[in-house]
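Q: Predict the assembly, please.
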Amino acid sequence: MDAQSSAVGTVAKTESATAVLLRFTPQPEHVRTARLVAVAHARRVGVEAGLLDEVRLAVGEACSRAVGLHQRHCPGEPVVVVLDAIDESGSGLVADRFVVTVADKVSGAVPAPRAGAGAGVAEGAEGEAVAESGPAAEVAEDEDEDLDDAEMGLAVLTGLVDDLDITSGPDGGSVRMGWPVKDF
Amino acid sequence: MDLKLETRDENGRTIVKVGGEIDVYTAPKLREQLVELVGAGKYHLIVDMEDVDFLDSTGLGVLVGGLKRVRAHDGSLRLVCTQERILKIFRITGLTKVFPISDSVEQAVTAVD
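A: Predicted assembly structure:
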């Protein structure tokens, strides 16, 4: 099995005959394309208009994360995205869930999210609001020039998407996100 | 979509008007602009985000980096943003407590940091 078919295989179990499959080289400019396709497909399958911004941001974050991982560890490997509407409830009638899976080929790449990421804000010693932990806490630290993008991305994802599953295995990891499809 | 950046000085502050999408592809351009301004001695910045269509965590990271840079010179970085979809990202990450956010540039230039 070559690298590309292996990457596709990582997410094949989520793929149906109606799925849209994206496979792109790990370049930042392709992330916007993935966002646009995700929103277009979400709209087509019936995701509520009020959730489309969330889909756009979440897919962008997951793809940015995968691109970053691949650029550091395996720049020759493609990032794979599968977008599908599935019958999660098993009704056998209609698809009720829009599911996006972004697969990477980097093993063991799930960082431990910092406790309280996106929350936990307290008054600093000088009366200035600073975070105790999470991305906001980085502002108070001087060691790093810029915030670690991957960690910030993970904080946004976990704070944004209720139906979120981030996994990592020996052949790579995946970010699976789901949103309801409205009843017709 | 390209990132559009315009800068001007007003009332002792430097206003950076940002338009378009700030993401993993375009954020380096904003970072470069902020670094350049701080390098030129502009330590009181206002980033006007009213024309920003999209912001992701990479953009947040750049803004946080800018804040750290100006604070190193006892400066300030204030945001102008009224768009709910953009503000939501700041809330999710707890950064509404870190960045002062104004409703308008007029309000931002007269604000006391």
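Chain A touches chain B at residues 28-29, 31-32, 35, 53, 56-57, 60-61, 64, 67-68, 116-121, 129-131, 134-136, 138-139, 142, 145-149, 152-153, 155-156, 159-160 (CB under 8 Å). Strands of chain A lie at 20-24, 79-86, 97-103, 121-123, 129-131, 163-169, 172-180.
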